[in-house]
Design brief:
With about 180 residues, the protein is mainly alpha-helical. The chain is built from six helices and six strands. The protein has helices at about 10-15, 30-40, 50-75, 80-90, 110-125, 160-175, and strands spanning about 15-20, 25, 95-100, 105, 135, 145. Helix 3 (about 50-75) crosses helix 4 (about 80-90) and helix 3 (about 50-75) packs parallel to helix 5.
């Protein structure tokens, strides 16, 4: 259900709402969806929440999308949203514990998860990596990703979805000729 193709925690969260410019497709529909997403994300923890916490995640996700998009375009950010994102980033981080065998366990609340995601986005915005953030070449897709390909010519958020659709369409177009 979830794909982690963006090469950044924060961008993978942004990808949980697809097709923003078209008919949006929400992948975080229930609190259980957030637990599944967070378990599969780079942090590897299943964060449990209620409907209010899920809505908070969605709101912060969209503020981050607007902030990253505006920053990439050199536009000024919304002052109220900047204040809210700064407040989230100032929160406590995820809990980490070490046992005697050297195993690290992570855990935390939805607010701690949001703090980690927003801090990741802030790091991305402040790094040279922001120049490698790209939009998927699929006109409908609104996923962002960091292009870490050697040649820097990645076009699709992921081959399983957008890249494959484009390749099939190109193949069919060639077959009609």
């Amino acid at each position: 259900m979830f794909v982690y193709v963006s090469n950044r925690l924060s961008l993978d969260l942004l990808g949980t709402l697809k097709w923003r410019r078209d008919v949006p497709e929400e992948h975080l529909r229930t609190p259980a969806d957030l637990a599944l997403w967070s378990a599969g994300a780079s942090l590897g923890i299943a964060v449990e929440t209620d409907l209010a916490g899920l809505e908070r995640v969605r709101v912060v996700r969209e503020m981050l999308y607007r902030a990253i998009t505006a920053t990439r375009r050199g536009h000024e950010l919304n002052a109220a949203e900047v204040a809210e994102l700064n407040e989230v980033a100032a929160g406590p981080g995820l809990q980490m514990t070490l046992d005697r065998q050297g195993n690290v366990a992570r855990g935390g609340t939805v607010d701690q998860l949001l703090t980690a995601v927003v801090r990741d986005a802030f790091e991305l915005i402040s790094e040279p990596a922001l120049a490698k953030v790209k939009d998927c070449a699929n006109d409908r897709c609104t996923r962002l990703y960091v292009d870490v390909s050697r040649a820097g010519n990645r076009r699709w958020c992921g081959m399983a979805e957008c890249g494959n659709v484009a390749k099939v369409a190109a193949f069919r177009s060639r077959q009609k000729v």
